[in-house]
Design brief:
Helices cover 30% and strands 32% of the residues. It has helices at 15-30, 57-64, 67-75, and strands at 2-10, 34-41, 47-54, 80-89. Strands 2-3-1-4 form a four-stranded antiparallel beta sheet. Helix 1 (15-30) runs antiparallel to helix 3. The chain starts with a strand and ends in a 20-residue tail after the last strand.
Length: 109
């Protein structure tokens, strides 16, 4: 399994940002191999983080090559004040059932 973490500092969003953001999320969820996602905000820095989980690197690459993703990437400086992408291989995920998580019930074989 893989995780793609998109960390960014936001500027002002507009209607086009929201349209692209929703189109990308919809596209990601439709890709075979999509497992789930979560989002975080660091209140101290104002930075945001979106984490997508994937069953394969090919599934992750399908999103990276999607036309809406490429469109958003080309225009990112309109809405973002810097970003970083971290691609990680998931070795394991565990915990109790008290916290719902996209990887609950999945195991990295």
């Amino acid at each position: 399994m893989y995780a793609s973490t998109f960390i960014f500092a936001k500027k002002q969003y507009d209607d086009e940002f929201h349209r692209l953001d929703e189109a990308i999320a919809t596209a990601a969820r439709a890709i075979p191999g999509y497992i789930g996602e979560e989002a975080w905000e660091n209140a101290a820095t104002g930075q945001m983080s979106n984490v997508y989980y994937w069953a394969s690197l090919e599934a992750l690459q399908a999103l990276m090559q999607h036309p809406r993703h490429l469109e958003a990437k080309a225009a990112q400086s309109r809405w973002l004040d810097g970003y970083r992408v971290v691609i990680s291989q998931v070795l394991r995920s565990y915990g109790d059932e008290g916290l719902a998580h996209p990887l609950s019930g999945f195991s990295a074989a």
